[in-house]
Amino acid sequence: SQTIHQWPATLVQPVGSPLSLECTVEGTSNPNLYWYRQAAGRGLQLLFYSVGIGQISSEVPQNLSASRPQDRQFILSSKKLLLSDSGFYLCAWSGGLAGGEQYFGPGTRLTVT
Amino acid sequence: KQEVTQIPAALSVPEGENLVLNCSFTDSAIYNLQWFRQDPGKGLTSLLLIQSSQREQTSGRLNASLDKSSGRSTLYIAASQPGDSATYLCAVRVYGNKLVFGAGTILRVKS
Questions:
Q1: Cβ(B42)–Cβ(A107) under 8 Å?
Q2: What spatial distance separates the first Cα and last Cα of chain B, rounded to whole Å?
Q3: Which residues of chain B does A102 touch, with a Cβ-Cβ cutoff of 8 Å?
Q4: Is the CB of residue B24 less than 8 Å from the CB of residue B74?
């Protein structure tokens, strides 16, 4: 069966510090991968998605970037965090078909102080 | 631009009641619609997936319907239990394999 992992589970970082969040998927190959952010009092916002290694699409201009160095690994990064980057970050995967179901990881709670 | 709206924003019901959560979307060009459950501080759990060609899906006490032409979906929960308390999210899958989410309905089932 497929499993999706995220780490760390929680993170407290000062403004201006770098960020690296990691997501890995097991039990499937060539998944579509997604990063979402859920800010307090707001819905889920799609940040990045990837259909293959090195292929990243950005949905909103922001202080963040994403990379996919391996087929089942998706990384969210920032060089300098802002207070507005605080939120709950969720990674998800789906099969290659347009009608496929999306499955979410446990999330990372990021607090920028 | 696709927009998804969920009504009500919050709902509190006594245990045992049947209830309906509503989801509407502005553009009928969708691949599918997915209902999720989110417990506080947790990730999303997929409950039901309805393909654009389908009218409904059932899983246990849950039944979801889809009327693509009118841009509406409902999630019906039968015989609600305190363990059903959570936030329920509706999302439509659009071109580019992207999900567009509603803001969710916070459900509380009182024992």
A1: yes
A2: 41
A3: 34, 46, 91, 93, 99
A4: no
Question: Do the chains contact at A105 and B43, CB–CB below 8 Å?
Answer: yes
- Check: CB of residue B108 under 8 Å from CB of residue B17: no
Non-local CB neighbours of B91 within 8 Å, separated by 6+ positions? A44, A102, B4, B33, B34, B35, B36, B99, B100, B101, B102
Chain A residues with beta carbon closer than 8 angstroms to that of B101: 43-44
Q: How many whole angstroms separate alpha carbon B66 and alpha carbon A101?
A: 16
Could you report the per-residue pLDDT of A42-86, keeping only the tens digit for each?
Answer: 789 999 999 999 999 988 767 899 999 999 999 999 999 999 999
C-alpha distances in angstroms, A91 versus A37, A83, B3, B46? Answer: 9, 21, 22, 14
- Say yes or no for a CB contact (<8 Å) between A104 and B46: yes
Q: Tell me the pLDDT tens digit for each residue of B48-65.
A: 999 999 999 999 999 999
Q: Is the pLDDT of residue A39 over 90?
A: no
User: Which two tokens mark A73?
Assistant: 């690994």
